[in-house]
What we know:
This protein has helices at residues 3-22, 31-36, 39-44, 259-262, 269-288, 415-427, 445-467, and strands spanning 47-59, 78-90, 93-108, 113-128, 144-163, 181-183, 190-192, 196-210, 215-226, 243-254, 401-402, 433-437, 474-478, 497-502. By secondary structure, it is α+β, with helices and mostly antiparallel strands. The chain folds into two domains: 3-274, Porin; 350-502, CATH 3.30.1330.60. The chain is rod-shaped, with a radius of gyration of 50 Å.
Amino acid sequence: MNMKNKILLSLLLLSQVFFVASAQDAGTTTATEKSEKSFTQKLMTNVSIGANVGTLICFADIRQYDWYPVFKNKNEWGPAASLQLNKGISPAFSLQGQLLMGGLRGTRRDLNIYSRGNTMEMTLNGIIHLSNLILSKKGGEKKWSYYFTIGVGLTSFRSQVYYLNSDLPVIGGVAALSQGYAYNTTTGELEKAARTTETVIPYGIGIKYKLSPSLQLGFEMTSRLTNTDKLDGYNYVGSAKDFYTYTALGLTYKFAKDATKEDAEWNNPLEDMYTELMKGQEKLEGLTSDADADGVADIFDKEANTPKGVAVDGSGKSLDIDEDGVADYMDADRFTPKGAKVDANGRELDADGDGVPDSRDLEPNTKKGTLVNFQGVSINAAPSTTSTVNTSASTGYLPSIFFKVNSSSVDYSNYERLATIAQVMKTNANVKLNVIGNADKSGSESYNLEISKRRAQAVVDHLVKIYGISASRLNVVAKGSQAPLASGDPKAEVNRRVDFEISK
């Protein structure tokens, strides 16, 4: 079979391969979309053509240096160009048919010879899209694609060896045999020899940059292995097989109208999987994330910005023990009776301004400035009818002091109430108070009497130490759990308190 027939047969086989490949949809469309496509659309899906220009460098016996070409006096750079037809099979793989033509050149100054030739190559290549085998988390439109290519085909070449000093062809010889020319035995004249055809295996790497959805700029470097030692026209006995490299820059045009959507090469399935995975992770984080660190996941949290350290209920709302609508951490009075009306700070309203909340005030219309007890009842502070009580500087209210479970320590939350007591006593120098300790019913009676006494004494010690009130004006009384305010709950916090009353 002559060279022309071989090339025609190769083209026929190549066209059949691409016809079959084109009938498959390698894009990202759905089954419904596939069925609606016309034959032409199916044929052109993921199909592109390309053109490259570059240079061939021949690695053969006629070569000045082992790894780089010479430029002066018969340079070894051979111009080359190629055409490609590409068909995407999947995001990771494409088929390519390539036609390459270029010059083969070599120089041996020590032998006073140089080589000139040309080759025409046809190959079928597989392209592995490395950029689609690696996960990228950058997101956005993909601009770069890099790949590895390997294939097989035929190369048809003819080369001639010349003398450097005369540019005359070298014919015959002991160490070398020129392949470019031969004597015609019939005419006896020198004629060009027939072209030599050998198998070629191209492999290499490339990179593309997307200029537009349909146009891409590419750069490629490949090596072409051959099964011959005649590429340079110099058949040296015992030498290795010749090969050449192709370095090129070119453009690729994609036919599909919506190239970005349908082009498998520019759609990394790993990125799609990663995107879906991230969406799932976001949903999972939505079930577990807790922005305000209150122990309730954001998706269930009805109060998303609870301050750090504030106790919350199962829905993430700040606890409101007295259910007055003011969260405990902002509530100035956490023991408001159920249903009582409060202000913005959680304090129960006091219509007559005597310092006793309306729900506890047994005398709701007390005259302003009148001294009252913890139930809002007017009291006469004087032990005799000749004594008077000055209430002009007082609040008129003797507030209770509250304690934690099993505690007799006066904490900071009670300092304001104790200051009120001290103010009343300093304003009324003749007033003496019974300091009455109380306890809830959770302990034994003996224990309750003991802790109620310690609570009353702690209040007395605070008034004496901080405000300088004379201890002789304060009488400690222990009632244990005998006088609860809240009788329904044996552990009610309002029962752990100290009350004050004017001593008669």
